[in-house]
Design a protein that fits this description.
Elements: H1 4-7, E1 11-13, E2 29-31, E3 51-62, E4 65-78, E5 83-87, H2 94-101, E6 109-114, E7 117-118, H3 124-133, E8 135-138, H4 150-160, H5 165-178, H6 194-205, E9 212-216, H7 224-239, E10 243-248, H8 251-254, E11 259-264, E12 267-269, H9 292-304, H10 307-338, H11 341-344, E13 350-354, H12 366-373, E14 378-393, E15 410-415, E16 428-431, E17 441-445, H13 446-451, E18 464-471, E19 489-498, E20 509-512, H14 514-528, E21 535-542, H15 547-557, E22 561-564, H16 567-608, H17 610-618, H18 623-668, H19 679-705, H20 709-714
Parallel strand pairs: 5-10, 5-11, 8-9, 9-10, 15-20, 17-19
Antiparallel strand pairs: 1-2, 3-4, 3-6, 6-7, 11-12, 13-21, 13-22, 14-15, 14-18, 14-21, 16-19, 17-20, 18-19
Helix pairs in contact: 4-5, 4-6, 5-6, 9-18, 10-16, 10-18, 10-19, 16-17, 16-18, 16-19, 18-19
Amino acid sequence: MAPPESVAEAQVVAVSVVPELESPVKQAILVEAPVAEPDDFKDLLGQAVGLRLDSVSREFGGNDEMHVSALQNVSLEIGPCEFVSVVGPSGCGKTTLLSLMGGLDRPTTGHVYGAGLPLGELSEHDLADYRLQRVSTIFQTFNLIPSMTVEDNVALPLTLAGVEIEERRRRARHLLALVGLQDRARTRARLLSGGEQQKVAVARALANRPGLILADEPTGSLDSAAGEGVLNLLEDLNRRGATVVLVTHDPEVARRARRVVRMIDGRAIELDAGNPTVRKQEPVDPAPRLHWRDTLKVGLGSAGRRPLRTILTTTGVAIGIAAMSLIVALAGGLQGALGAPALATSQVHQVEVYPAADAGTTAFDAGTLSTLAAQPHVSAAWGQLSMSGSFATGTSAVAPASKPAPAPPLGALISLAPLHSSSVRPELSAGRLPRSDSATEVLLTDSEATALGFLSARGAIGTQVVYAAASGALMVPGVTRNPVTHPIDLKLIVVGIVSGNAMPAGAPGGMAPYATVRDYWTQLARANGWKGGEYSTITLLADSGLAVGVLQRRVEALGFQAQTFGDQFRSFEDLLGKMRIALLGLALVALLLACLGIANTMYTAVLERTKEIGVLKALGARRRDVLLIFVAEAAFIGLAGGLVGILIAVGLGRLGNVAVDRLTQSVAGAGFDVFRTDFGVVAVALVVAVVLSTVSGMLPALRAARQDPARALRYE
């Protein structure tokens, strides 16, 4: 009987009573509609595959290896939709026979046909397609990838076939539901029991809709209940159209098949005549194959299974890339710093000129400045004007007649370097620099501001001061040059405060723009009849760093004393050049070691994952797929090492810039980014890391791609 809820869906057939007819009244009859059974295996199988073996022999060994004859002159025919069991003791050739049927191995002599294809004559590419789209193997030892989840193991054939991720997840979950493991989808395969792993292997075998299912001792590692479940599933698949070949040594299991082939010492006996095989079956559309995203995912997962080894190898790459990045950043930073406008007008390019020691004068006049400015390689020239006098505030300049005005504090007035010719600026403790060379503004020293009566030096900013020169030069004991007999006042606005260290000998006073002081000195010279001696020193600006030494020697040849301020910087530059060579050597050694480490890591990975490679090939992976998986792993190591190396280089570069700034501030008057890392440096470093890692992993990857699947599956 149908369940109660199906009765409501039953069809009701009623026979009505017609009054005109005297026929007997018939009772209504309820007829239950048949309930369709759910078909969970719908669309799980492909076209059934027929097999034929003609006088097949398979021998192993040769040369120095022991010669073994696994199969001897086996002829066998298995028609589509047959359920055949191959039974025999261990070592009789059952697994070798299964490997030939599945395209995992090739016969030494004879011919093997599957789905009408001569398997022994197919290329590796076509054999991989046959394994991927026509046949699935259920291994005795399950051959799951332990680090993958149950769902990823089931979806692995779909991944190799290039199926979109959503579709393969949906199908994997459906297959797991069929074997009752839907709740273990996100569990790692290594955490399952033997029975659960075998169920996962069965689900994986159905992933790509096979037409031929090869089961190698599927119940050998299971208890009776789990083994019965697997056999029932194989019988059901056979009833629904799949060709099933079951290898076993258990006669009870063999009786579940409709036909039994017995193997003894590599020979097949007691054969029934099988159904005729199909020589040529319908072609299968070529699979899109492994997507690059899945290749990266599998490669990344492989690297994550050996974290310590991966970290050590990545560290080697990071050291090499960091050293290379620092070298490139150093070269770019130095090139940019040496060509920076601030450096071109800094003390590094300046030559300070003083009178000769035996000269009768201690100052220069305008004619000497013109002569020196006309020398080769001079881009600008100026002199330092200095005078002695006194400052007074605007309010103290006019005092009541009854009270005498206090004596104004003595102070020196020094000219600043021309703003457009020199980047050397005094360090301010408050305020700002003058706006131009002709501005009537002044920078007072903190001691001068205190002497003027300001409680705080900052309080002097914005006030007007009046300067009256007493001498056209600094007051030096025993020497009085250009005395002032007709004083002239110069009104200035205080715009900044500097330390007394900015003045010659730490004298109190102020610093005013170059043109303002020069014009004031000219007015004083005209009023007092001075005949020169306005410049205490002359500064020459060379047109390039290379010309500084040449200019210094030329000035000394004219009979003057010359001093440069770039010696310290150039010594540091020489040190950086030596560091460049040392870092380059370190980078080459580190990268060489990293490449060797990657090659060793990948080679070891090939040995450790030989069986996994065999599983991938048994599931239909081509040589190209295996190659790309291992290359992706090597490229990931290089990418990770490159990123870490760049981060290290950027961090060390910033620390280096801070240290260099402290040195160059005192020499060049400005800070420079000696380590300059830009996007181009980052991109090149990453490309170098990935390319070197990929090349280093190529040989091990080629070794993995050439692995024979049958031997790889037997590897322990």
